């Protein structure tokens, strides 16, 4: 039977929304007990969606800032929470499963036994979730663009190589990560039609 922290984690993940947010089924608990040790589950349950300092998070848990910082760094390294580095220090935030934890776990392209185990558990959870609730249809965009004092032309544009290079040349920090869907499928011995990656740049 799942412990109290993992029962609370179910409600937390439900509240964060997104696809496969949380469902009271055995596959959910099998997944989260592999992802989070009891300490990490406790800290995850205390994390707000807004980036927050270690000191503020520690105040809600009764743990010292040093102890909470160590747990959060461990979680961030495993893709279990979001972290933003600022001039005043790191700020941490809670993540939904998608988009969030599932992508962050596999974005590094690792092939450890833990990642293979997690991939199998994610696949089992998503399958059981869909069987229990049906295929989720997202009726709203997960991200939105809000123009301020300007008009933005809607639509997608396929850029040429030279156009893309002008964007890349502007920034010093460029991130490239493995595609979550294909990484997860490959670790479940499922065929991946092609290789691809996700990219991002940091604005100065």
Description of the structure:
With 204 residues, the chain is mainly α. Helices cover 50% and strands 11% of the residues. The protein is built from 9 helices and 5 strands. Helix 1 (4-16) packs across helix 2 and helix 1 runs parallel beside helix 3. The radius of gyration is 19 Å and the shape is globular.
What is the third-level CATH name, the topology of the largest domain? Answer: Arc Repressor Mutant, subunit A
Specify the CATH homologous superfamily of the largest domain. Answer: Winged helix-like DNA-binding domain superfamily/Winged helix DNA-binding domain
Strand content: 5-15%
The DSSP helix count reads 9
Overall shape: it is globular
Task: Identify low-pLDDT runs.
Answer: none
Using the CA coordinates, give the radius of gyration.
Answer: 19 Å
**What portion of residues is helical?**
40-55%
What is the mean pLDDT?
Answer: 83
Counting DSSP E segments of at least 2 residues, the number of strands comes to: 5
CATH top-level class of the largest domain: Mainly Alpha
By CATH, the architecture of the largest domain is named Orthogonal Bundle
What is the number of domains? Answer: 2
Q: What does the largest sheet look like?
A: 3 strands, antiparallel
Kindly report the spatial arrangement of strands forming the biggest sheet: 1-3-2
Structural class by sheet pairing and helices: mainly alpha
């Amino acid at each position: 039977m799942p412990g109290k922290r993992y029962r609370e984690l179910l409600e937390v993940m439900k509240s964060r929304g997104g696809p496969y947010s949380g469902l009271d089924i055995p596959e959910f608990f099998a997944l989260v007990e592999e992802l989070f040790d009891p300490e990490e589950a406790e800290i995850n349950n205390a994390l707000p969606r807004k980036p927050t300092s270690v000191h503020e998070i520690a105040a809600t848990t009764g743990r010292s800032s040093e102890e909470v910082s160590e747990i959060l760094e461990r979680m961030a390294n495993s893709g279990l929470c979001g972290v933003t580095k600022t001039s005043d220090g790191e700020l941490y935030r809670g993540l939904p499963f998608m988009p969030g934890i599932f992508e962050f776990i596999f974005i590094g392209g690792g092939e450890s036994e833990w990642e293979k185990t997690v991939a199998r558990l994610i696949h089992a959870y998503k399958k059981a979730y869909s069987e229990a609730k049906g295929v989720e249809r997202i009726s709203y965009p997960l991200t939105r663009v809000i123009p301020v004092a300007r008009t933005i032309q809607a639509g997608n544009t396929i850029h040429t190589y030279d156009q893309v290079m002008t964007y890349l040349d502007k920034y010093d920090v460029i991130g490239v990560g493995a595609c979550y869907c294909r990484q997860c499928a490959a670790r479940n011995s499922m065929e991946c039609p092609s290789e691809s990656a996700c990219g991002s740049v940091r604005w100065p």
